[in-house]
Design brief:
alpha/beta; Peroxisomal Thiolase, Chain A, domain 1; 2 domains; 5-stranded mixed beta sheet; 4-stranded mixed beta sheet; 11 helices; binds coenzyme A
Length: 336
């Protein structure tokens, strides 16, 4: 097992004020119902941003909580990496707006695009930058305002997603208080992508290849599209690969893991992943029922939520596994 270089020092999350239940969606005229959505996905509600709840606002609120838990000030942050598919502006990165809002004047800041694997990839970039000595203290955020890019008339997609932000402070182990276990930190990291399948889950228009136009709006191509069944198959396969590889790299078995925190896409994918790895669901954290799929925000929200519930006490061995559009997937084993 490798000796950790970096550890997670603080977590926090923020969601919009308004929760929208499955019944609310049906009441708004969408041809769906609570039983269908719960049975297929496990989702009961999701949060939806108001215009003043931008990606910068949600991210900054989550970051402040993570910084407080880690006991750091904004001036100690060397790097901000923000995983997202829904930046406030296409230029510049939202990470720099978060930097300005926090007053993190010394930091380098950028966004990272890896869809639902966004926080995991960002955490891996943080670990790498810490390893090279470019950074000691990193703010890693996963955040989305997906409600602005889903088609609220498409029941195949709109019921699945939600808004929110999760933040983590990742630091070099040299900042650990004296006497803390040297085993604490990131024990293994694994990531993969497969761009051959990019159009199974994508947002066709709005970029350089297909700019916004009246024809785009008429065909609703500015919104997310998904081949649900195909995505499901690949998600199950990729999550299984992710779980196996991170455990192999850390020379651990599923029995060693105290808690798996998977990407919260839906309970069926999570249950299939748990079954593959031989995890009883009591060792798997699930909160998709309350938040829906918040994409890049899902794992850091789940982590902060699990910590608030007391499910990640000191010494806990956590396995993260993510999967998203691209496709992208990956995993990480972390001792807290
Ligand atoms: N409410 C009611 N009915 C719905 C519905 C909704 N919100 N969405 C779809 N349906 C209908 C379909 O129109 C279809 O009706 P039809 O048979 O009359 O055509 C029927 O339900 C079955 O649709 P299907 O797409 O085959 O359902 P499914 O069992 O594959 O479940 C998903 C759909 C989206 C829940 C499932 O494919 C899935 O979870 N995919 C992965 C999605 C995901 O997690 N994406 C993010 C990855 S990061």
């Amino acid at each position: 097992m490798k000796r950790p270089i970096a550890y997670i020092a603080g977590t926090g999350y923020a969601v919009p004020r308004r929760a929208v239940t499955n019944d609310d969606l049906a009441a708004q005229g969408l041809e769906t119902n609570d039983a269908w959505i719960r049975d297929r996905t496990g989702i009961g509600q999701r949060y939806v941003s108001a215009p003043d709840e931008t990606l910068t606002v949600l991210s900054t609120n989550a970051a402040r909580l993570a910084m407080a838990e880690a006991g750091i000030t904004a001036s100690e942050i060397d790097l901000i990496v923000l995983g997202t598919a829904t930046p406030d502006h296409l230029l510049p990165a939202t990470a720099v707006e978060v930097q300005a809002a926090l007053g993190a004047g010394r930091a380098m800041a950028f966004d990272l695009g890896a869809a639902c694997s966004g926080w995991l990839y960002s955490a891996q970039v943080a670990e790498g930058m810490i390893a090279t000595g470019m950074a000691e203290t990193v703010l890693v955020i996963g955040a989305e305002v997906l409600s602005t890019i889903v088609d609220w008339t498409d029941r195949n997609t709109c019921v699945l997603f939600g808004d929110g932000a999760g933040a983590t402070i990742i630091r070099h182990v040299r900042t650990l208080p004296r006497g803390e276990s040297r085993e604490r930190g990131i024990l293994s990291s694994y990531g993969r992508s497969d761009g051959n399948l990019y159009d199974l889950l994508w947002r066709p228009a709005g970029g350089v290849a297909e700019p916004f136009s009246d024809a785009v709006y008429a065909a609703r191509r500015q919104y997310v599209r998904m081949e649900g069944r195909e995505v499901f198959k690949h998600a199950v396969r990729s999550m299984a690969d992710a779980v196996d590889r991170a455990l192999d790299m850390a020379k651990l078995t599923p029995a060693d893991v105290d808690l798996m925190i998977p990407h919260q896409a839906n309970t069926r994918i999570i249950e299939a992943t748990a079954k593959h790895a031989g995890f009883d669901m009591s060792r798997v954290f699930v909160n998709v029922d309350r938040f829906g799929n918040t994409s890049a925000a899902s794992i850091p929200i789940a982590l902060a939520d699990a910590r608030q519930q007391g499910r990640v006490p000191e010494g806990t061995l956590v396995l993260f596994a993510a999967f998203g559009a691209g496709f992208t997937w990956g995993s990480m084993v972390v001792r807290f």
